[in-house]
Amino acid sequence: MAGHIKKTTLKHKHESTIKEKNVAKRKCSRSKDESTPCSVNSSMKRSVKRKDNGVFAFNDHPKFQPNLSPKEVLQSGSFGGTYFRPIKSGVTKMSYGSEVWKELPEDWLKGLDITKQVASPNYDMNVNKYKVKCGGSLQMWEDSNWIRAQDPYGWFQWYCRFFQGRRSEDDGRQISRWLNCAGVNGRWRNNLIGKIYRARANYNDIQVSPVVRQVLLHWGYVLTEEDFKARVDKLKIQGKK
């Protein structure tokens, strides 16, 4: 009888564990109206391949082609050092602190001063790669309806989690935002190219629109010579018509 009870208990524990795992998986597919944030766990992680041209390839989302990883964005100098600062979310009505940056892989933060370059309460443009200030406030992002509950810090938090393997119902919207900003026909990418072209400068001349360059860096993209030439050739063709 004791053996039977022990086996039954183990069976119930096993079923309970499976149930908990299934609940966790469902949480990572929450709709935008639900308020519990979803981070990354080890079972979600997958390898990311980088093409020869530096672009990251995501087989399930081939149009999404950033050429900077989240680690490279952070290590380059970004968000005035404030991105993962403590916040009170207007979307989830919850407070967040050090757990958000501690979620990141340790090597992403290696060599960085967390208090100045990652989770500072005060924006410092000298932290940024291009030494300029750019971007709006969290309240502005929330008021613009750009923030979803699963990623209360916004785009870059989504990208960190997506890059590590998480997939969610918000992926399509966030990728669409990236395309509109930094994709082939993206507003800021082509804004920068147009300015460089008109100034007759080199594609990597950081004196030309450092603010836009910093914006694009936040979106996981840095202008390459290949992308610059492709766009300029298109502009020249259009100019002949």
Characterization of this structure:
The protein is mostly helical. It has one domain. The protein is 44% helix and 3% strand. The protein has ten helices and four strands; from the N terminus they run αββαββαααααααα. It has helices at residues 2-27, 70-76, 99-102, 114-118, 138-143, 155-163, 171-182, 187-199, 210-218, 225-240, and strands at 49-50, 56-57, 87-88, 95-96. The strands form two sheets. A two-stranded antiparallel ribbon has the order 1-2. Strands 3-4 form a two-stranded antiparallel sheet. A hairpin with a 5-residue loop joins strand 1 (49-50) and strand 2. It starts with a helix and ends with a helix. The model is unreliable at 5-11 and 16-36 (pLDDT under 50).
Helix and strand layout, with pairings?
Elements: H1 2-27, E1 49-50, E2 56-57, H2 70-76, E3 87-88, E4 95-96, H3 99-102, H4 114-118, H5 138-143, H6 155-163, H7 171-182, H8 187-199, H9 210-218, H10 225-240
Antiparallel strand pairs: 1-2, 3-4
Helix pairs in contact: 8-9
Report, as a whole number of angstroms, the end-to-end distance: 89 Å
Taking strands numbered 1, 2, ... along the chain, how are they ordered across the largest sheet?
1-2
Helix/sheet category:
mainly alpha
Give the biggest beta sheet: 2 strands, antiparallel
